[in-house]
Amino acid sequence: MTEGFISRGFRGRRQTQDARLPPGQYLVGGFPVLSAGPTPHTPFEEWDFSINGEVDEPRRWTWEQFSALPSETITKDIHCVTKWSKLGTTWEGVSVDTLLEGIETAAEYVVAFCDGGYTTNLPLEDVIGGRAWVAYSYEGEPLAPEHGGPARLLVPHLYFWKSAKWVRGLRLVNEDEPGFWESLGYHDYGDPWREQRYWGD
Amino acid sequence: MVAVRGRRLVWRIGEVIETSVQTPRTKSLVVEVPGWEGHRAGQHVDVRLTAPDGYQAQRSYSITSAPEDGRLELVVERLEDGEVSPYLTDELRVGDRLELRGPIGGWFTWEAREGGPLLLVTGGSGIAPFVAMIRHRAAAGSDAPTRLLYSSRSREEIIYAEQLDRFAAEDGTLEVIHTLTRSQPPAWKGYSRRIDKEMLGEVAWAPGSMPLVFICGPTPLVEAAATALVDLGHDPARIKTERFGPTGG
Amino acid sequence: MDEHRLDGNAAGGALGEIFPFEMTTAKTACANCASVAQVGAAMVYASAIGTVVRCATCDNALIRVVSARGRYWLDLRGVRYLQIDET
User: Fold this and answer.
1) For the structural domain made of A48-70+93-194, what CATH number should be given?
2) Among A7, A14, A83, whose Cβ lies nearest the Cβ of B50?
3) Residues in chain A within 8 Å Cβ distance of C61
4) Nearest to A184 among C4, C48, C64 (CB)
5) What phi and psi values does residue B154 have, to the nearest 5 degrees?
6) Number of domains chain C is built from
7) SS3 B198
8) Rg value, chain B, Cα
9) Each residue of A31-70: pLDDT tens digit?
10) What ipTM did this prediction achieve?
11) What domains are defined for chain B?
12) What letter would DSSP give residue B196?
């Protein structure tokens, strides 16, 4: 057994622990990329964003239409379940409130679906009320493909696997549908402040 | 040779019994692991480092010792912004313990009984599994025609340079072809550019010879070489690759 | 070229903790495109969050593994079968 083994003199690359961080997190300088599959490269002419599922009328925007929607610049802390965090990251995107404005639904959950097949699930109330965006710019630059560009979901109050890269839409559903990682051990909700990393946490 | 059979891989602790500088940026380590059951040439181990607060980082390193050597040797290239490699090259000392699991990866292995011709294509620290294969080949007395095409930035950065050249000098059926991409010694008559299709066309056997091909190293090198060899007519089913990732591990 | 993908060997450690067999030479039949290949020839996306083994032909997720806090989660829905040789 190797319980309790410590490598003499090893500290790792992370900068520091910080009182502003949720439990178990540490700060990093760069922006790690964690991949579960090949990086999609959807051309803007082929990209669209949809709202469908339990809605009266599905919605769809082309890239041109999406770019014309009112956007916001927000600065948020982000926390990855693999323990790295970044404070004060700046994004530009469209608030999910804007995308869902006027929608009538009895659905209580959403599933974000993405190029490459990735999905993640959230309660509908966690993507409204100014808590979620579809972001296409990071630190003033267009979002790079390896970080989810053209656009990714941004839900900073939950672990960052919920901020789905290469997002193409939200499907509103009546029952919770565990997504890519939620169906494989990761916590259904994922609140970093309650350290909800895995099933049973 | 022993395969891992009837037993799951577990993390084990070994002791570093030897370290030596290979090139300005690489060091080889010999690790003694109690109960080590042996390995096949081409396999790797996963090394895991744990900080006092429980933080862990893990990387894979190919085993450079031959199965016949009865020991576990690794080579580590110090990456500038690396997290694990600088610890292994700069901090780790003889007597330290190291957590690892393995051997891993029976797919990317070569045993002398498989014969040849054998084409090994690599750059930088990708040489590691091929050092094991070449050492094993010598220990097994194999005369399978073998060619190693090895890309390095300069002569000083060729890892295991003396050993490889000595093996080639003593064995007419082993050819080691270097290409030096950034700087070459005076009077250098060898290749002086990155591995490309033309070079592979000159170095590789004709596809009709059906060589076993192994390619290991940074992802761009591996993908370029694999594509080129298929373009030259080699059977993709006889080409095995081990990508190290963008920075080479 | 995707810089983040590795060869099937990169999943050997994670799979080797679960299966008492040499897994990189195990054959998988893709549930999506039916192609048969050894795990070693598949494409692996591995990071601290989990390991995903994808079909080299169609990118379908063949095998997914998460290991954390003494538990393993293994999803094999992407394969029709796994053929493991004892030797």
Assistant:
1) 3.90.420.10
2) A7
3) 36-37, 117
4) C64
5) -155, 170
6) 1
7) helix
8) 18
9) 999 999 999 999 999 999 999 999 999 999 999 999 999 9
10) 0.95
11) 12-104 (2.40.30.10), 107-243 (3.40.50.80)
12) -
